[in-house]
Fold this protein.
Amino acid sequence: MATQHEKRIEITTLLHALVHQKDIVEQTGASLRTIYNISKRLEAGDNLRHSPGAGRKVTVSTAQVKAAFKRKPNRSIAETAHKLNKSTSAVSRALKKAGGCSLALYKMPSFDLTPATGPSGACQEAPEQHQELLGSNHHFF
């Protein structure tokens, strides 16, 4: 499977060979919008690679999230997000990036403290308040 850059080079080659844009769609599997965008970039003389720093900027740092959860480890992600005046998803992403995990991923009935399967295969670290029950090999931060 070709990378995005390789696909763009293939499309550029076909555009330079004066192949019709709809034929390029059939040959490459790229959308017509992608072909138009690459054609515009070529006409403007722009680079085909993504510019550095492209994409959405981080709204909350991992240090902020770590500090918030160290102060109040029992607080939910939603409550922490509200206190930090950030979105729940931004706090969740920062928490995951910092190496932490959500308490919601843990089954808590009776004495069963095994991780539940989460969307990305379950968090492998235990929250601080459960360390003594699980042993020292599990940690939150």
Remarks:
- Residues 108-114, 129-141 have pLDDT under 50 and may be disordered.
